[in-house]
Design goal:
This protein is mainly α. The protein is about 60% helix and about 5% strand. The chain has 3 domains: about 50 residues, no CATH class; about 270 residues, Fic-like fold (Orthogonal Bundle); about 80 residues, Arc Repressor Mutant, subunit A. A two-stranded antiparallel sheet has the order 1-2.
């Protein structure tokens, strides 16, 4: 169980210590990481931990901003660290001038499809979906019917992310929120009647499964409608005091987890709403950020950020700081991913030298050159490259006519393609 901090008491000695910690730079370090009492108390040797904590808490009280949802009050600070990263994100993931990550117009659709898949898979795996990334990608690319609950969760998330991209400029209403939940929860809950419906009982708790400890008791069912209406207003309208859009998106994410309006699927819904809010407010590169992948890999910190915020007088800065760090990691991962993919394109460039082979077909040849047992379908090519079925079939048929592919019959109507026996021989003939 998280240790509760001592009740803060401010006096002249606290103010003097605050000045001292500010001048030494210690306070900035603590607040940039936004440490809680369980870490702060070990930061001092010559000063009593409680007095040290009093100075930290006093510094956080000066500029905090309060917000209200229903009858519940929350607050947050915008630290130097948060300000710096907000500026970084404004320059790189928003606006109309593009970014410096190197996504070309011709590659945007390809990277978008891959990113949405990664986000859908990771967000589902966080909630218990048990399948490999490779198997999940193949299911999505080939539009294969899910075989179990885990695959259904991933397919649902993928459908939800695609829906949000198409409706990113819409306002949020309780009805649309319920629709999002219905998409996310389809065929994955114990009762189909719970899909797209606010919970109708108070018998719900957030539990730390490592020790079965109850760590959060959400608001009662009778309060959900009022709080969710307030959250929709928060999503759609400007507040009297300006709140940066990224911070607002993070608060929306937190609130769905805190309110727990559904019997299940709250985490996936919360991350989907964050994604939606960011796109709605012009942060277009969010479409390419696989934030849930980072959260999945730092799940303990994710859960602690929720707990710290609640246990320390609903101070959302803990969760905001964690989320901002996560976005920075996701942005770095995106740049590395694009660099790898661009290297793959360079490696596939030699195949473009083959007469009558376009860029997509060159990438197909590269795939087969590296994976001889690969079975290709027009549906997979559609999803991989974001093209029509006609174009996908044309690409595969052209490679067959050039001798690189062979058709294999699946049934009376459908056929797939495999690497032709003479693939390597034909490739050598072009002296690439």
């Amino acid at each position: 169980m998280l240790e509760h901090a001592p009740i803060s008491k401010y006096d002249t000695s606290t103010i003097d210590l605050l000045k001292q910690l500010t001048l030494s730079g210690e306070l900035k370090e603590i607040n940039d990481d936004y440490l809680y009492w369980d870490k702060v108390k070990y930061k001092t040797k010559s000063i009593e931990p409680e007095q040290y904590w009093n100075a930290v808490k006093l510094s956080r009280s000066f500029n905090k901003q309060n917000i209200l949802f229903g009858t519940y009050q929350f607050n947050f600070n915008v630290t130097d660290y948060i300000l710096r990263l907000l500026h970084h994100f404004d320059l790189n993931i928003g606006g109309n001038l593009g970014s410096n990550v190197g996504i070309t117009e011709t590659d945007k659709n390809k990277f978008l499809i891959s990113s949405i898949m990664e986000e859908a898979i990771s967000s589902s795996q966080m909630e218990g979906a048990n399948t490999t990334r490779k198997a999940a990608k193949e299911m999505i690319q080939k539009e294969r019917k899910p075989k179990n609950k885990s695959e259904q969760m991933i397919m649902n998330n993928y459908a939800t992310m695609k829906y949000i991209v198409q409706h990113k400029n819409d306002d949020l209403t309780p009805e649309k929120l319920l629709f999002i939940h219905r998409l996310i929860a389809n065929n994955t809950l114990d009762s189909i009647e719970e899909e797209g419906k606010f919970r109708e009982n108070n018998d719900i708790y957030v539990v730390n499964y490592s020790n079965s400890e109850i760590v959060h008791i959400p608001p009662k069912k009778e309060e959900i409608e009022v709080i969710m209406n307030d959250l929709c207003v928060f999503f759609n309208e400007e507040q009297k005091t300006f709140i940066h859009p990224i911070i607002k998106g993070i608060i929306i994410h937190f609130m769905i987890g805190w309110i727990h309006p559904f019997t299940d699927g709250n985490g996936r819904t919360a991350r989907a709403l964050f994604y939606w809010y960011m796109l709605k407010n012009g942060y277009w590169l969010t479409e390419y950020l696989t934030i849930s992948t980072i959260i999945k890999d730092t799940k303990i910190q994710y859960e602690k950020a929720f707990l710290y915020s609640e246990i320390d007088q609903n101070d959302l800065t803990y969760f905001i700081t964690y989320h901002i760090k996560t976005m920075e990691k996701a942005f770095i991962a995106l740049k590395e991913y694009i660099s790898r993919k661009q290297n793959e394109v360079i490696q596939a460039a030699k195949f473009v030298k083959i007469p009558n082979v376009n860029d997509r077909q060159a990438q197909i040849l590269k795939i087969l050159n590296e994976d001889s047992d690969r079975v290709l379908s027009s549906k997979e090519m559609e999803n991989r490259f974001g093209i029509s079925n006609f174009t996908a079939r044309s690409d595969l048929n052209n490679l067959e006519s050039l001798g690189f592919l062979e058709k294999i019959q699946v049934n009376k109507i459908k056929h797939n393609f495999i690497k032709a026996k003479q693939f390597n021989k034909i490739l050598k003939s072009y002296k690439l």
